[in-house]
Amino acid sequence: MSNRILLVEDDVALGQQVVDSLSQAGFDPHWVQDGDAARALNPDDYRVIVLDLMLPGTYGMDLLKRYRVKSEVPVLILSARDDTADKIRGLKLGADDYVTKPFFPEELLARIQACLRRPNLVGTERLVVGPIQVDLERREVTTSERTLSLTPVEFEILALLARRKGSAVTRDTLVDAALDPSHDTSRRTLDVHISRLRGKLGSDATQLETVWGIGYRLSEGS
What we know:
By secondary structure, this protein is of the alpha/beta class. Helix content is 39%, strand content 21%. It contains 8 helices and 12 strands. The chain has a 5-stranded parallel β-sheet with strand order 2-1-3-4-5, with helices on both faces. Helix 3 (60-70) links the parallel strand 3 and strand 4 (75-79). The model has no long low-confidence stretch (mean pLDDT 85).
């Protein structure tokens, strides 16, 4: 895999400093300076994403949520916001680390290296949750009984739940990933898709659990 790193930072002086530091360390940095530009990129094209929060365009936390829907690439938040609530929220949304400004370049490099040493952070082509297997490349799902025939929306819902196996995924996150959140009926439509998924999962449907007041979870099963 390449050493390409995505830096999302609108401070020109700081961004250039980080780019220079990454380049000297042997990485291939790709720097964008606003959230909308970062939103259009594929997170799986990078080994690590270094993400500022206060950006023009799409807000950094919203970018983090979007990246986590599609990818397990390590995300390191780089922000002047040092409030504990912001740190906790970022980590709960799936960030792997949180570095506050100002910082030493050596610290940032050390934290990036630490992210890269952690196992199972880069997205895989096949997700396995008990007897349920989700092949991301072939867009195919198999269970203990058969290969399923899923609609694109059903596949996206199940793939997201499989990426976050064992963890509750909010209804809003699932709507953002697979449906059109601008439609008032999206949340009710999600329940319809979940019901159909359970029907197709057959005896493995018990793995698709409702987490009351939050959303849904795909468990490993018994």
